[in-house]
Amino acid sequence: MPDQFLSRGTLGKLEISEEDEFGVVVHCWFNKTMDGYDCYVAFFGDTLPDNEPATKPYVLRYTATSLTVIN
Which of 10, 32, 47, 63 is deepest in the core (most CB within 10 A)? Predict the structure, then answer.
């Protein structure tokens, strides 16, 4: 995926381990130091909840290019 701004609420998938991680973009900004977009993403594990999540998500920081946007 090319580097781009991701709006808050964008659903994404992180594919860096054996199991995909699904999350929602909380905040995205242009990082001048790395010359690209940086994001805080609330991750829910291997599935996105349909309603209120059973467990609290964990928020991690990743570059926008690390995420695959899902619809």
Answer: 10
